[in-house]
Records
---
Amino acid sequence: MTPAELSRTVLHAVRRAVDEGELSVTVPERAVVAPPGPGGCGDYATSIALQLARAAGRPPRDVAEILRARLLGEQRFTDVVVTGPGFLNLSLRGTASAGLVEEILRTGSRYGHATGFSGTAVRLSCPAEVRAVVVADAVARVLRSQGDFVRVECEGRPAPEWESVLGAEVATRGPRIADRYVTVRPVPAPADPLPLGRDAGRWALLHPAAHDRPRIPGDHLVQRESNPLFRVRYAHARTRALLRNAADLGFHPEPGPVSEAEALIAALGDHPRVLAATATHHTPDRLARHLLAVADAAMPLLPAVLPLGEEKPSAAHRARLALAEAAGTVLAGGLALLGIDAPDHL
């Protein structure tokens, strides 16, 4: 079950409570679901009860218990627990992972993207400094993935190498009319990132938070686990190698329940929320850290994808292969939004 499907399920429970007279509120357009925070449990949590409590004229925990009773009737959940002041914590059945994988494989690299124009035009401006230009370019890519129309403008004249080497596209001037005006001004790069090339150079500038000084040259070109970019791209390449090897063995991915992959499933399910938050807060470092979390969660799964020795491919192997493919798809799509290549071979 994807976060969007979970949101609709929670809203359906609210609507039923309103229709049956237990709550007197306006049903919101969206219920935010995310991995549980400290003190939470299960696969996802929502604060919808806290959001509705004032309008309902009832304590948040009372609202949460009303919704819990209806959510427990959904066969998609194994348990629904109320924690803290009124958070609803949702535990999904094993088949929920199959639905999430199906959704990712169906939408491909556009998983987590908006389906149409949001109606918002954004003008991004940045100083003529290499890190600011690259960050603005990445922010624009993510905003466009969420349906916004975006124009990036530089307050000075950018060096042509920032586009030809680093792939950052900006204009020096343009129309001033927009729904939102955003200025991107991260801590400047301490050294020239051009010798790193496009992929490592962009990662070096985008992975640190805007208020942190990037490390250049750092270890961004080193192929070892201490290099976060290598871990992300290596995990992607491993998923592609597994697909090739499985095809040689005569079996293909087929979504199904996968045990002992809760961290990976939660990270994949969180991808649309991360993209939306990255767009809202103009923080491509948030997306970079999320991709690293997906890669690190995927690596323990990968050795169990292919059958060993004389073992025949089973439904479990096909389900693990599908989950691995979904992880690789999310990694490739996220890297593309950062303007970084995801090679099939490393």
---
Amino acid sequence: MTDTAPRPTLEAVAARAGVSRATVSRVVNGGDGVREPLVERVRQAVEELGYVPNQAARSLVTRRHDAVAVVIAEPEARVFADPFFALQLRGISKELTAHDNQLVLLLTEGRDDHARVARYLAGGHVDGALVFSLHLDDPLPGLIQGAGVPTVFGGRPGWSDGRAADTGPTLYVDSDNRGGARDAVRHLAALGRTRIAHITGPLDQTSAADRLDGYRDVMGDADPGLVAESDFTPAGGERAMRDLLDRRPDLDALFAANDLTAAGALRVLRERGLRVPEDVAVVGFDDMLPVAEQTDPPLTTVRQDIEEMGRLMARLLLRRLDRPGGTGSGPGPRATAPGQDVSPGDPGEPDGAEAAVVLPTTLVRRASA
């Protein structure tokens, strides 16, 4: 066993800096009213002594825990198998780390977990929540509202009643799913393809519904037999592709709702002896490089900046928390209709019952179309 040196105290920092204990407390806890020369002396003493503030004591002063819950409304197996979630979490983690905040990951394996998540959020463990991958009938938004926790959503919320939490306007960060889908289908049409099929994501999620709407914007009254619903997974893409080929063996193009779905569809096309892109041109959505660059052939896809979405979610939440009362009241990004191109810029805090940052998408051309 080895002896450990005692942790430096506020009193030790105060003695080193030549100031009062109260002055040190105000500086390390982010308080106001301390002259800059004294602030510098305290900071130097903190660094020299290696003082680490007591988080529990600091929370009593600042009413902040410097912790943010990230709630993903998907089972654990899905979260850790889909690189989309890893990219979004990386963006969130980078932004929180840059502001010395901790990320607390909460997953919902099933409906029994919703009450557990709500109890945790209401228990005062975190300052706010970032929530994504919601489904239309998901009770989480209502439970989070009941917990009174400032929240930013990833993706356009599915409700249409204009609800707003007591903690401020409903904020969300999304990509231009509808516009990106239109670009994908227009690209296929420009290649001379006329029987363009679509494999959707789960239509109880707004991203999948918006991409289906974008497909329909271009295709108009296309044969409903050219559309198959899936679940954003490779296995789902395989099942949907088999179903489409059984119904419409003459299809000559496919827009898949995400890259994982496209990867599954490509495997089935190869099994059926169809050449890509000669017989069937394929476009995905996401541009997740671990997937899109490794399919055979490499995948033409619509790029959305998933990591940036996570970063902006965290930034919006931290800005809300930094405002008096933690609810926000200043100008910021305006609400936008799905499919409307918006440059996110450097978002502030929006007004109104619902406001969004919508990131643009771009078509990335590779060998599949």
---
Amino acid sequence: MAAGPTTAEQGGTVKRRGPSDRQPRPEGARGRFRPLGLLPVLVAAGVLLLAGGTVWALYGSTWFRVEAVKTSGTAVLTPAQVEAVAAVPVGAPLVTVDTEAIEARLREELPRIASVDVFRSWPHGIGLKVTERKPVLLLDKRGTFTEVDSAAVPFATVTTPPRGVPRLVLDVAASPSLRRFDADRLLAEAVRVRSELPDAIAKDTRVVRVSSYDSVTLELTRDRTVFWGSAEHGPAKARVITALMKATPKAGHFDVSAPSAPVSSGS
């Protein structure tokens, strides 16, 4: 049996395939391995030059160096005191200044500072934004006074007491409550009482006397006293003492240790 022809037969003639009968190659395939050209190389070189220029400008040039330090927010402290402790490296590249180290140094060496924000002020400055602690009580220590803030933190000793800040007397040497509540805890309780006083009474308070955990007495102007008891139920006691003083304005002693049964006496 004879093998079939290897070429197509049409009408008795043999048609052979030529170059024109081949399938065209897809257009995208022709330049698939074309060289990258100069454009990507130029872009990469430009990026490197820009990065190098930026590094030089920040670290090597004189354009962005520390020339000035500005302090804000001080009340008792002076800007000069703050800046001396901050020790900002004037002349150094601004980007190299360790702001966190400066903040830590200021808080450690100046306890009056409650918080401080150290920031770069481009192109040539460092800013020091200070928040000082404010005293709410003064611990009386035989001629000197230790200022205590609203977080019960003793932060500074002064010889002249600030105006309008009550003295705190911890008269607890013989108190049995010291077995459970040490002096720091009693200090915190005194601050808690002070913070919950109505504004009008706080303004008139001269002494906060603590004899034990549940024995806090306020000494007010015009020889008036308020027995507060413990620091518990402060808001209720604040409302009661306000009403009681209005109801008995000539009284000299007030007891709100049990706010549901307040007492006033004397004249």
